[in-house]
Amino acid sequence: VAQDLSTLNIVCKSLFDNQPEVPSEIKQKVLGFSKKIEKSIMDVRDLAYNIRPATLEDIGLVQTICQFCEDFSEKNHLHIDFHSAGMKNLKLDYDTEINLYRLVQEALNNIKSHADAGEVTVRLVASFPNIILRIKDNGKGFDVNDRLVTALHEKRMGIRSMEERVSLLGGKMTIQSSPMNGTNVLIKVPYKVKIDG
Q: What is the pTM of this model?
């Protein structure tokens, strides 16, 4: 899809080559189309990366999350402090890795959309027999029970999606929050060692 969009963008940009008589307002409209195509290309690439980041296999979970936090921070003007401990030589199975990555993604997207936070702390720690993921923000917070009820009625996926991921990994998630006091998400999942072959 990204390649097709890139080809379309090249055609769009060269549409009026050697045609000086084309009115400038039409050229401006086509330039606007070109910019929308460029944004679509970036969205498709981001989507493909986020579905299954190649870096998980290349550089591992910790560096992939670190890179995601840096990119997310830059794009959304949000300071994210990421740190891990005890994860260096740990070989997790793919399901655990991809779901931990997705949990960080989902949490940061929730913070961006709802929290009005300026600072986020992300901690990923191996503490046998669990992997502990803690995500804390200094945003406006919320009433956890009320949010869970309204999320169910409004079919919001954020928190529910996170709960489902944690449940699939056989773990537990707790959320501490209250209005004007930020939010603290604590996730514990048992780690499963990667089986080679």
A: 0.72
Spatial distance between the Cα atoms of 151 and 44, rounded to a whole number of angstroms: 28
In tens, the pLDDT along 75-118 reads: 999 999 999 999 988 888 888 999 999 999 999 999 999 999 99
**What gap in Å lies between CA 181 and CA 166, rounded to an integer?**
24
**172-177 and 183-190: which strand pairing?**
antiparallel
55's CB contacts (< 8 A; 6+ apart) are 63, 64, 67
- Determine if the peptide bond prior to 179 is cis (ω within 30°): no
Give 43-53 pLDDT, tens digit per residue: 777 666 566 67
Assigned token pair, 63 = 């560096």
| Angstrom distance (rounded) from CA 26 to CA 15 | 11
